[in-house]
Amino acid sequence: EGDRVKEIQVKRQDAATNWIWGAFKMPGRILHQLAALWRERDRRDEYIGTLINAYLAAGGEAYGVRAGVSYVDVGTFNGYRTALRLLEEGVASEQRQTAMLVGGAHPHVPVVPGEGA
Description:
With 117 residues, the chain is α+β, with helices and mostly antiparallel strands. It has one domain (1-69, 98-117). It is built from four helices and three strands. Strands 1-3-2 form a three-stranded mixed beta sheet, with no helix packed on it.
């Protein structure tokens, strides 16, 4: 199935791969579909990954792009500092960003920071 995403393994110690997803790119209509699905599921999805899994199970499509060499969690103080250091060193600007393309997005279109789509 090439780049097609089968599932996101959320918070699993026994994950089948070492992939880390970092971003989504999707049309607004897909975002609205995800919001509607979240409401239909009584807002029980704590993580977007479980919601995407429900979307995929209902026939939705998502495509992954293998890219990038560094991952940091900028939601933590240490991760944020590491990200700043990587930017200062120029590492982040030289690598492609990791992305998952959901729904109508073309699977081979790279996602560029600040693209706004």
